[in-house]
Amino acid sequence: MAHSRDKSIGAEFHAQTKYRRGNVPRTRTRVAPPYKVYANPREVAALPVPQLRGGSGLWTVLSTARDGVAEGGRLKQAQLSQLLWGAAGFTFGFERTHLSAVGVSSIETYVVARQVEDLFAGVYHYNPRDHTLEHLSTGDPTDGFMASLVDPVDVGAQAVALCFTGIFARHHSGGNGRAFRYLCLDVGAAAQAVVLGCSGMGLAAQFLADFYDDELSELLQVDGRGEVPIGMVLVGA
């Protein structure tokens, strides 16, 4: 049997973040605010109010093929609004729409916009409290975004990319690495909501988790240490 030092990074991480009887933190303390706030975004764009009723039935959406191909069309603002709310917004009960491992969302959501009606191309941060987009950078983000992807993707056919990052400190607990598990769970739940929403609206969706971390962090203007990219969904009309 292989010695423990020969374990893969993943296996070692899982072993070191196990909870065992007598070794579970009594309390979880956050050392970061639950929401990211930009003091001076370039511009703030209000999104259309999302629909809270109707739409395709849940089982219909779950059984719908999710291999649609983006055709380079323009996404409607109302569609983007619906996807962002479904992924990372708030319900009327002031709960996050996506599942969260410990009741506090660890994710932030960014929009790399190429083709959205009445919205400048660029990179935006989604503010779930106000349901708005905060404009972080202007100009066509295509080249920078393509450079951040490991595998070739027809980025020119995509309308937007919804990129999810995670902030470890929202789940800080005595240095315990369990927070890393929570980030992945939160992002998985949010990304699933986007893909299902795309299926319900007849949009193409492609989930990606392979990217160059430093390049994507630079594009999204995050530090890549306290806040790190975890995954993204490409959306095409």
Summarize the helices and strands and which ones pair or pack.
Layout lengths: L8 H8 L26 E4 L11 H5 L14 H12 L18 E7 L8 E6 L4 E7 L3 H6 L12 E8 L10 H24 L2 E5 L4 H8 L6 E10 L1
Antiparallel strand pairs: 1-4, 2-3, 2-5, 3-4, 5-7, 6-7
Helix pairs in contact: 3-5
CATH topology: the name is NADH Oxidase
- H and E string: HEHHEEEHEHEHE
Helical amount: 25-40%
Structural class: alpha+beta
- Mean pLDDT across residues: 89
- Tell me the fraction of residues in β-strands, as a range: 15-25%
Quaternary structure state of the chains depicted: single chain
Biggest beta sheet summary: 7 strands, antiparallel
- Describe the global form: globular
List segments where confidence is low: pLDDT < 50 over at least 5 consecutive residues: none
What does this entry look like structurally?
- The structure is a single chain.
- By secondary structure, the protein is α+β, with helices and mostly antiparallel strands.
- The chain has a single domain, classed as NADH Oxidase (3-Layer(aba) Sandwich), CATH 3.40.109.
- Helix content is 27%, strand content 20%.
- Strands 1-4-3-2-5-7-6 form a 7-stranded antiparallel beta sheet, sandwiched between helices.
- Helix 3 runs antiparallel to helix 5.
- The radius of gyration is 18 Å and the shape is globular.
- The model has no long low-confidence stretch (mean pLDDT 89).
